[in-house]
Amino acid sequence: MRKSKAAVYFILPSVILLLSVSIFPLIFSLRASFMDWNLARPLETSFAGIDNFRRLFTHPGFLVALKNTALLTGVCVGLEFAIGIGIALLLAREIKGSNVFRTLLIFPMMMTPVIVGLIWLFMYYPRIGVINFFLHKLSLPTPAWTSSKSTALLSIMIPDIWQWTPFVFIVLFAGIQSGPQEVMESALVDGASNFQRFIYITLPLLKPVIMVVLLLRIIDVMKLFDTIYILTNGGPGYASENLSWFAYRTLIRAYDVGLAAASSYIILVIVVIIVTILLKVFKD
Amino acid sequence: MSQYDRRERWIRIKKSLYYLGLVSVLIVFIFPIFWVVFTSVKPNRFIVTLSPVWVFAPTSQHFRQILFEENFLFYFVNSTIIASATTVITIVIGLMAAYSLARLKFKGSDRVAFWILSMRMLPPIAIAIPLYILYQRSGLLGTHVGIIIAHLTFIAPFGIWTLYGFLKELPPELEEAALVDGCNRLGALFRIIVPVARPAIAITAMFSFMFSWNEFLFAVLLGSSTATTIPMKAGRFVQQYSIDWGPLSAWSILALIPLIVAVFLLNKHIVRGLTLGAVKG
């Protein structure tokens, strides 16, 4: 079978599946974003042009959500990668025990995000929660994690990092393990130090895997919803709202379908831009 | 102290620091889980206390409650059906798609790859509402199939891209030998690539299963009383002013068990393949 023919046949099932399911939501949302459609006044639905988009950029909640999303994405993905790669490297050297370690480390990822949120909510309780209990014992400040403006966003970041660093670690570790080992061995023979091995050999080999994990994590953090719902509800005020939450609140609380659809598409556009940039960077 | 003794000492210090680091990492990541297990066997009066209670007589009342009163097994079966179907479909079509993208470059393959990834980019709320309307009109609302399809919208792209990343790592000459010998593309895929990519496939399957198993939004919105999943019912323990921590913890722990089993089963496939010699041979 010719290469290009096989290529198309192989990818056809996926494309058909995704296309058929996504086309309706995409068109629906696009249409809605150009309309003034409020569920509280359903008879007044009308075409509104780019009104919704204009309103978005002057909406204070949207701009805060934008800033929060940027912070969340930067800190969470950054730390998940730093720690994840660190652990993967530490473990790559010791073979014994690495299996056990890796199996144990999967646990955070295996929990339902909603339940993870609840567990952390429980641990975050200012007076009776475990976290403040230990902080108090160490004479450290004991903030009101989820209800204080300064720590609300932080309290969202921690469960995400806790739950997804293992993901980064496991995938990268698997990448290291399934990469060609002869190259690493020959480098050892040539006398390269561990650190040099890492920078010049392991890292470049892992580029495709790193790229994928980075993309997936960025997309997922930008969509973050469950933990915000459980822990802070976007509060206090707008302090811990992200774009996903903003869209939700606009739809469910303000009943403004048009505005919610518009904000969803803006999120889509932002993510598309970021992903495109990242793909270009990694394609070199 | 001779030079060798000093070197020995330094190596031993490095080793203990190394183990210390690993153990602290382990503690940080495992502690919340431990806390849940701990809570699941605590009698109610010890759970919400002013300072954490560490010593108590464990009880099985929460587990008994969720197994017998809340009918855990029913949700378990449902979740298993949905997650298994999602995983199998994802791996089958995902592996083919990833192979196509990674090996068989065709015109516009980059665009298609990007479009597949973009399926994950919309906030779930934006997809859920239109899907609800679509399902209502097509009768898929409240069915297992409906939830499976909804899960596939974001899990299939994940599977495709993860496998794509792994497959790109493999040397291109890998299947050349078989192709020259007259094997067709599909055969090459199964006989050569799959064994080599076993760790990648196992991991992707594991994650896909996990994501489907733990998914909350679509299950709640598009499910029904017959097509409910474990996470969906977990919300029941959260009432307006109080949270039933005991049964909730027990529920979470039981929900973990199938995942642990799945991890165990797949673990032996995640051991590094030793087939790299096949190319040089």
Helix-strand blueprint:
The complex is a heterodimer of chains A (284) and B (281).
Chain A: H1 3-33, E1 35-36, E2 46-47, H2 51-58, H3 60-93, H4 98-105, H5 107-110, H6 113-124, H7 130-137, H8 152-178, H9 181-189, H10 194-205, H11 207-222, H12 226-231, H13 243-252, H14 257-282
Antiparallel strand pairs in A: 1-2
Chain B: H1 3-40, H2 61-69, H3 72-102, H4 109-118, H5 124-138, H6 144-169, H7 176-180, H8 185-196, H9 198-214, H10 217-222, H11 230-234, H12 245-267, H13 277-280
Task: Describe what this molecule looks like in 3D.
- Chain A is mainly α.
- Chain A is built from 14 helices and two strands.
- Chain A has helices spanning 3-33, 51-58, 60-93, 98-105, 107-110, 113-124, 130-137, 152-178, 181-189, 194-205, 207-222, 226-231, 243-252, 257-282; strands spanning 35-36, 46-47.
- Chain A has a two-stranded antiparallel sheet with strand order 1-2.
- The longest helix of chain A is centred in the first third of the chain and has 34 residues, at 60-93.
- Chain A is flat and about 70 Å long.
- The mean pLDDT of chain A is 82.
- Chain B is an all-alpha fold.
- Chain B is built from 13 helices and no strands.
- At the A-B interface, helix 1, helix 3, helix 4, helix 5 and helix 6 of A face helix 1, helix 3, helix 4, helix 5 and helix 6 of B.
Strand content of chain B: under 5%
SSE topology string of chain B: HHHHHHHHHHHHH
End-to-end distance of chain B: 50 Å
| Residue share in helix of chain A | over 70%
Based on secondary structure, the structural category of chain B is: mainly alpha
Radius of gyration of chain A over all CA atoms, rounded: 23 Å
In terms of per-residue confidence, which ranges of chain B show pLDDT below 50 for 5 or more consecutive residues? Answer: 272-281
Rg of chain B, rounded, reads: 24 Å
Mean pLDDT of chain B: 80
The SS-based structural class of chain A is: mainly alpha
Biggest sheet of chain A, in brief?
2 strands, antiparallel
Please trace the helix and strand order of chain A, writing H or E for each element. HEEHHHHHHHHHHHHH
Total of helices of chain B: 13
Strand proportion of chain A: under 5%
The gross shape of chain B turns out to be flat
CA(first)-CA(last) distance of chain A? 30 Å
- Largest chain interface and its two residue counts? A-B, 94 and 100 residues
Q: Indicate the overall shape of chain A.
A: flat
Residues in helix, % of chain B: over 70%
Q: Trace the largest sheet of chain A across and list its strands.
A: 1-2
